[in-house]
Amino acid sequence: MTLPALDExxxxxxxxxxxxxxxxxxxxxxxLQQLLDVAREVTGxxxxxxxxxxxxxxxxxxxxxxGVDEATHRRIGNLPRGLGILGLLIEEPRPLRLKHLGQxxxxxxxxxxxxxxxxxxxxxxxxxxxxxxxLYLTEKAGxxxxxxxxxxxxxxxxxxxxxxxxxxxxxxxxxxxxxxxERAVRSLDTTVAIAQALGGETNxxxxxxxxxxRARALVGARTLVIMLQEDDQxxxxxxxxxxxxxxxxxxxxxxGTVSGEVLxxxxxxxxxxxxxVLHSSLGLLGLEVDTALLVPLAFRGRAVGVLAAFExxxxxxxxxxxxxxxxxxxxxxxxxAVATGKSVEEQRLRDNIQASEQERRRWARExxxxxxxxxxxxxxxxxxxxxxxxxxxxxxxxxxxxxxxEEIANLRSLIVELRPAALDDxxxxxxxESLAERTSARQGIVVEAHVDLDWExxxxxxxxxxxxxxxxxxxxxxxxTNAVRHAGADxxxxxxxxxxxxxxxxxxxxxxxxxxxxxxxxFGLTGMRERVTLAAGELEIDTGPSGTTVKARLxxxxxxxxxx
Length: 564
Known about the structure:
The protein is built from 14 helices and 16 strands. It is of the alpha+beta class.
């Protein structure tokens, strides 16, 4: 086929259009609008349009026009989707010229309010052998049919359009890659900063604040919070962004909330209509959100909390898979920080308790070896003075000896309370039985102790660890002290049993009870809870007017067996 010769003015206009495409700022719609104007100019067409195919290549996704004013657009209503002649060009992507559009067998007419169109010229826009859309012209000036030169001109313009679209796609791809790389670099910088904080900072609050601030900036969230699990509640611990007043330390139930479901399932959840879904959960914290991304905080397979980001500021579609991946990495760092912080705190508490026990031992030895010996020597000296004849002296010495004997007894009792020798020498069973006997004799109440441990039956020759024995003894001792001093009990029952790898402790009294959390319970119960937590156990307190029962369950740990 011989190509038609294009006149010089037309050729120059097409070349100028190509230069404009090559100099464009990669705004596809602006480039296409410019090419439509050139197409109308060089062909004399009244109307021009370009139809953009969707991903399936079956129908039109966008339809850009030239020559149709806004009022006409409104009268036409919905833009075409690719039926009739437009559908034919989609099925058979090659140039099509019609002198009378309405006479073609596949013509399906026009909707109401649509301008009359008779002559027609359509050509495909092809990018690397793939049809991207079609360029349409209608109503050539004077009612004439479109010519070969018109068709050749529009084919050239379609090629320019393909180049513009391809360049824009490449530019967008480069921009996406650049954004991805910049985001990856920011993510790496943030990860390094958090890793350094984890290595050099033991204050959990400061670490979590760093994590939420960096994570919020990286994913472009309006608000980002961390909630940690405490029993059957989630507690707000750290946050960044648009936070409601008074949100710190607020509690939210796990059961029946989307945050609780994320915690239990240990699976991230993305919500694009979060306002209604989160009303019963995050609404309790005073948060009004549209989109949300919730990620579990898990350390070694155990969920410790939830990291939640709300309303993506940079993307109306909400959070994407990349945001989920990034927040997952931050959640792992936060979970590690929580576990590390708790470990440091537990170790600090354990060290304090051990130091306290060691100090008790030292004072017990000092009082026994020094003070008691001195008092005993004084008693011997005074007893020797009793052999004198002076009645007044004898009476004074007798009174002094009685005081010394009483003080010796008091000191012995204090030594035992500080650190009973039976606990170190014979174990917790002997120490508890002795504690019950002393308390009963000194206070005039009934104290019964029932201790049944596996090692005493010979099933396991090794004793429990010193730390565990001290914990059991102090729990019983503090419970007994509360029963006597605060509850006014007449009868106390102590029961310590071992089975299935656990020690079960129960101290019950018939006293007046108390309100947990008041100064009466105060420091003693706090110390008991700390000791039980360090022993990885559970503590339960049931108190009322008819008495109090303190129960604890501790994993039974034993000393390593001595080599033969």
